[in-house]
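step 4 of 6: structure.
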Amino acid sequence: MQIGEIPRRKLAARLRGEGLHLVTGVFTTHLRIELPRLVDEFAQMYAHYPVDDPPAIDDFDIRMAPPSLLRQVFRPQAQSWVDGVDLMEPMRLDHAFPMLESSLNLAVASGDYLPLVVHSAVLERDGRALLMPAPSGSGKSTLCAALAWSDWRLLSDEMAVFCEETGGLRANPRPISLKNRSIEVIAARAPEAKFSRVYRETNKGDIAYMQAPAEAVRRADEVALPGLLVAPVFRQDSPVVVRPLERAAAFRWLVDNSINYQSMLRAGFELLTGFVERCALYSLTYSNLDEAIETIDQLHRDLPPLPRH
Amino acid sequence: MSPFARRDLLLRSLLAPADTRQLSLLQWNTLLQSARRNGLMARLAARLDETGQLADAPAKARRQLRAASIAAESSQTAVRFEINRALRALDGLDVPVVLMKGSAYVLGSLPPARGRFVGDVDLMVPRERIDEVERRLLERGWAASELDDYDQRYYREWTHEIPPLQHPERDTPLDVHHTIVPLTSRARPDAQALFAASVPLADARLRVLAPPDMVLHSGVHLFNDEVGTPLRDLFDLHDLLCHFGARPGFWDELLARSRLHGLQRPLYYVLRYTSRHLGTPVPEPVVRAASASGPGLLLRPLMDWIFDRRFRPVAERRPTLAVTLANWAHYLRAHWLRMPPGLLVRHLSIKAARAVRERFAGEKEPAA
């Protein structure tokens, strides 16, 4: 069952009561919401996501509620609890949805859930992954959103979740947060894209969320094998410059952007060294979105075919 | 198996891992959630692995358990490295270094180390050498946490350790102690005897407490202090008692050392609640001897009420009123045992005043 198929009243009651098991690709979140307005915004952005029914094993437990009785009336606020712990300061009620999104990210970063997570946009085409590791705020989200509406399938715009068994990447498609100007750019390229309202003055500035494409959510259990690693650098007015990346430099780039490499010991080292060995590695400086996408498509076409088993 | 363990999914799975074979997916979910919240996820992974049950667990459970194992292993690697750096810094001082708690379990290869996350390094040096040790560590790059005058004084005059140190390049805090309980507490363990009986490790620069002292220290810490994961720490004691209990003479020594250090009461609690909750085998004569030092007959049901709730796995989303009350009672009791009444009133009022200031000023100060 999908979230959009549940009547709104029933959805609100379930979120307030026993909660919902939201499946976003590799992760399942036991989600409870006690903020009526957030239910609507959540239902809009996650309408096409499946729920785990009957419920099985969750990865995280997130509860969104007012921080106190007082804060329901006087300057209302929202608070989130990740596995029972309030990891953030309360935010104003109007920012409840960005807070939920941050909580879903924090849950991954703070728990000992996975072998390895790297800050990165991840997309897939013909079964091969495109990894663009970069710190948040580096402009990778816009490029990622644009690719997600071209011939690429979105796995995640925030985190690369490595799969220990295959050395590939698992999907965790979620709404993509975009700054004001990016919203116009993406809306012009992809009329089918759906956006949330604009949240003003969040800690990341004025942002809106773009719904993940339906196909990305439908195919979220497909693992992508190593393909391309592109370190993106946005530079105003720069022509497209592609440079091959040394393996050691690519490895270093991944380590610098990883959330938990330090604590993953040999397992982390082996995953990352294995990954850079199986990928074509480039750095890409760009200013024009179309040129960047064209270049990435060309790099993808130039990939050597996968070895046959 | 104790009645507590039979009723609780987490305890049962830890003590009889084969029982997990019959679990439904939903029960697995409850089990993993409970293990995570009680700091026992990596231990569960280790127990399932040792008994060959891990392969039969659902794929998603296996993935979560493996991640917890890696995190625990990695914390132990960090602890080994921190100790290695500290030894290097202390080179030439010729001071006995006794590892305590998690660090001792890891470096001493003791059973509680299996599947245990260790967050910091605890070590003990003789009180008359502690200034020298602190100076050397500060010279070699460790930094003291920033504390106000009250907290500085609190640590140095009233506790059994100096303010925690941490090297800016690493994540593992280093706590340097000179005995096993705060100076202000009622109990007065014999620190010299602790050092004299300590046992060298393979790397002879390091020592750990003698088995009975180790049990008494972990016990006094668990029952007279604030700890974040009481059930995990009770399992540490269970492991130590099962491991050392097989050695000839251990139990007699344990009773004798508890009298020497004035720690008969904490020992009574250790034996009562490990056996009551985890079914730890304690010889009958030892139970009887320790029981003589237990609380009075009127107090016993109250202590049971408090500790039965304190050691109940926290699975509920919000603790029940009874659990909150029990934790509160424990907090008061721990403080009561830690300092004489006058000092206690002073300490709590300073802490309360600070909480009020923070609330209004909106700025956080480091807590004592």
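step 5 of 6: annotate
 - The two ends of chain A are 36 Å apart (CA to CA).
 - Chain A has a mean pLDDT of 91.
step 6 of 6: archive
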